[in-house]
């Protein structure tokens, strides 16, 4: 396998790892609020979270590109703070990946929290357990399978991104050229053997993840 392919694979794995870490930090509290809050804004926030599931990646990438361009408030602020731009950068890819993969991490965790049921929470409350104790000692341990599945699902989904990362990151070697873009380049150049090698790697990883989740979560819904 060509060294440039290995670089793209490494870049994709790096992107997916950082994205999943951020999504778990942000997604677990968000999922807790969506699962247990009675606030009337929950359906609205849920709709925003799951929007990337139905929105074409190029549309999402277009709006993210507009949000992060150099003359936008976010892009100009980032330039002032770091002396580097968001668009066509690895940092921009991370932000875009977090947005794009958000429902693939949050929704399985929400489903896991729902699977616990309100009765378990009420029982813990009736014996004097605090909200923090309930969350850390009951909800999280009982949701471990769902959280692990969400993390893996988010990781694999990020590995396969194309439209969003191309719009935001472009096709810069060693910086934003992830494996999906490398596959596209190989096909465009009629390098079908190299494209097949990379595609096969992603296919095997994706199938292995789906197979593992089907065996490990027979009674727990992952996506609804």
Q: What does this molecule look like?
A:
- By secondary structure, the chain is an all-alpha fold.
- The protein is built from 11 helices and no strands.
- Helix 5 runs antiparallel to helix 9 and helix 8 runs antiparallel to helix 11.
- The two termini are 38 Å apart.
CATH architecture: Orthogonal Bundle
Give the number of helices: 11
Which stretches of 5+ consecutive residues score pLDDT under 50? Answer: none
Main β sheet profile = none
Overall strand count: 0
* Number of structural units classed as domains: 1
Radius of gyration: 20 Å
Q: First CA to last CA: what distance?
A: 38 Å
CATH C-level class is: Mainly Alpha
Q: Could you state the order of secondary-structure elements as H and E?
A: HHHHHHHHHHH
Question: Based on CA inertia axes, which overall geometry fits?
Answer: globular
Strand content: under 5%
In short:
This protein is an all-alpha fold and 224 residues long. Helices cover 78% and strands 0% of the residues.
Q: What secondary-structure arrangement, pairings included, does this model have?
A:
Blueprint: H1 3-36, H2 42-54, H3 57-68, H4 73-82, H5 90-116, H6 118-126, H7 131-142, H8 144-159, H9 163-169, H10 179-188, H11 192-216
Helix pairs in contact: 1-5, 1-8, 2-5, 3-9, 5-8, 5-9, 6-7, 8-11, 10-11
What are the defining features of this structure?
about 220 residues; mainly alpha; MetI-like fold; about 80% helix
């Amino acid at each position: 396998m060509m060294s440039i392919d290995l670089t793209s694979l490494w870049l994709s794995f790096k992107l997916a790892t950082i994205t999943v870490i951020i999504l778990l930090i942000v997604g677990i509290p968000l999922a807790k609020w969506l699962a247990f809050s009675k606030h009337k804004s929950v359906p609205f926030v849920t709709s925003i979270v799951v929007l990337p599931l139905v929105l074409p990646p190029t549309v999402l990438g277009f709006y993210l590109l507009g949000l992060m361009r150099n003359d936008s408030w976010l892009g100009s602020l980032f330039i002032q703070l770091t002396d580097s731009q968001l668009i066509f950068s690895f940092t921009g890819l991370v932000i875009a990946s977090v947005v794009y993969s958000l429902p693939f991490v949050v929704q399985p965790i929400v489903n896991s929290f729902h699977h616990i049921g309100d009765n378990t929470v009420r029982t813990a409350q009736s014996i004097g357990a605090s909200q923090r104790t309930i969350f850390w000692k009951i909800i999280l341990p009982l949701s471990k399978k769902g959280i692990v599945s969400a993390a893996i699902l988010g990781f694999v989904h990020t590995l396969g991104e194309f439209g969003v990362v191309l719009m935001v990151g472009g096709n810069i070697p060693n910086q934003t050229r992830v494996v999906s873009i490398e596959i596209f380049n190989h096909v465009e150049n009629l390098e079908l053997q190299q494209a097949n090698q990379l595609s096969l790697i992603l296919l095997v990883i994706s199938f292995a993840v789906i197979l593992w989740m089907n065996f490990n979560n027979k009674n727990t819904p992952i996506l609804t």
